[in-house]
Amino acid sequence: MSSATLMQLCRIGYLALVALLAGYFIQQGINGDYSMVFSVLWILPLLLPLKGVITGNPYTYAWASFILCLYLLHGLTLVYVTEELLLFAIIESVLISLLLIGFPFYARKRGRELGLGLKKHKNKDK
Fold first, then answer.
1. What's the structural domain count of the chain?
2. Which UniProt keywords apply (predicted)?
3. Residues ≥6 apart with Cβ < 8 Å to 65
4. What is the pLDDT of residue 39?
5. CA–CA separation, 21 and 88 (whole Å)
6. Which positions ≥6 away from 55 have C-beta within 8 Å?
7. Parent domain of 66
8. What would the pLDDT profile of 100-124 be if each residue is shown by its tens digit?
């Protein structure tokens, strides 16, 4: 799979996740289950890597996985504790799990294409 195809898949998955969670948290705020401030605070971390994900910056794809872990915990907790939102929680958890595989894979693949990465430290003792 080319890095361009992988980036498109990750981008579509990320935007779907943003739409899914924004809709969920805004609905919870409107219903009064959560305050609107709390709902917005839940969405903000997910929006931090938006520009880098859209532009295809491999560095952003690498660190965005850490943010996704927070939402994976949310999804897995919902799977465990709810029956009403079980389908939503499963979709959220599966989508995030796929992104947690795709994001680092794209970052590594594209980083190698661009020649990015950790430089090898030369041993000065020799």
1. 1
2. Membrane, Transmembrane, Transmembrane helix
3. 99, 100, 103, 104
4. 86
5. 10
6. none
7. 3-113
8. 999 999 988 888 888 776 566 677 6
Query: DSSP readout, 45-100?
Result: HHHTTHHHHHHT-HHHHHHHHHHHHHHHHHHHHHHHH-STTHHHHHHHHHHHHHHH
Could you identify the residue written with the tokens 């917005």?
A: 40
Which two tokens mark 61? 């794809």
Give the pLDDT confidence of 45-54 residue by residue, as tens digits: 999 999 999 9
Query: Which of the 8 DSSP states describes residue 126?
Result: -
**pLDDT at position 119, please?**
64
Percent share of the chain, pLDDT over 90: 56
The DSSP call for residue 33 is: S
Q: Please state the separation of Cα 13 from the chain's center in Å.
A: 8
Give Cα separations from 84 to 25, 26, 77, 78, 88 (angstroms). Answer: 15, 18, 13, 10, 9
| Any domain includes 34 | yes
Please report whether residue 94 resides in a domain. Answer: yes
CB 71 within 8 A of CB 92: yes
